Amino acid sequence: MLSYVDRSRTALMLAALNGHTEMFRYLLERGHDDHHISQDYEKHTVLIIAAEHNRQEVGAIFVLYARRFPQCMDMADDTLKTPLMYAAQHGCDGIVEFLLDNGQSPDKTDQDGSTALHYASAYGHIKTVRLLIIRDCRYTIRNKFCWSANDWAYSLLVQAELESTLWMRMHAYIQ
């Protein structure tokens, strides 16, 4: 396991990681990231770090940072995973909804061709799967291994929910 020093994380990133909202606000007020967006050695931004942690205070940090630095909402790490993909992987539905509301594409792919729907499905986040489908993601996308989100599903239950939600969307039961 790598230490914080090895990951080259800034004080702002550590405050986000640990949910220290007051320290986070203080650092932002003092101009942290005004001249250069913080990234660790894997090109993780504050938004990616916040999206990986499904806690209420981290959600507040995510929104605060995204509003101040909207260009970060689309910044990918060195594997081309975006904050939306991380939020979907970790079942952070509030963050997923915020990103979709702010124009982020659910169909963007990482270096393996996987989308946010692939990650939500693979990690068993049924609410996130529903949200992405309802918000018109392209559910037929296959990654470079030729797997769809349905193929990557965590369980038969997730597969069934994905297929049910798709059927309802296709038959206009979901607006």
Please provide a written account of the structure:
By secondary structure, the chain is mainly alpha-helical. It has 2 domains: 1-78, Serine Threonine Protein Phosphatase 5, Tetratricopeptide repeat, CATH 1.25.40; 105-175, Serine Threonine Protein Phosphatase 5, Tetratricopeptide repeat, CATH 1.25.40.20. 49% of the residues lie in helices and 0% in strands. The chain contains 10 helices and no strands. The protein is elongated, with a radius of gyration of 17 Å. The N and C termini lie far apart (45 Å).
Spell out the key features of this protein.
single chain, 175 residues, mainly alpha, Serine Threonine Protein Phosphatase 5, Tetratricopeptide repeat, 49% helix, 0% strand, elongated, ANK repeat, Ankyrin repeat-containing domain protein, Ankyrin_rpt
What ranges have pLDDT less than 50 throughout 5 or more consecutive residues?
none
What does the largest sheet look like? none
Shape: elongated
Give the terminus-to-terminus CA distance.
Answer: 45 Å
Whole-angstrom Rg: 17 Å
Output the structural class.
Answer: mainly alpha
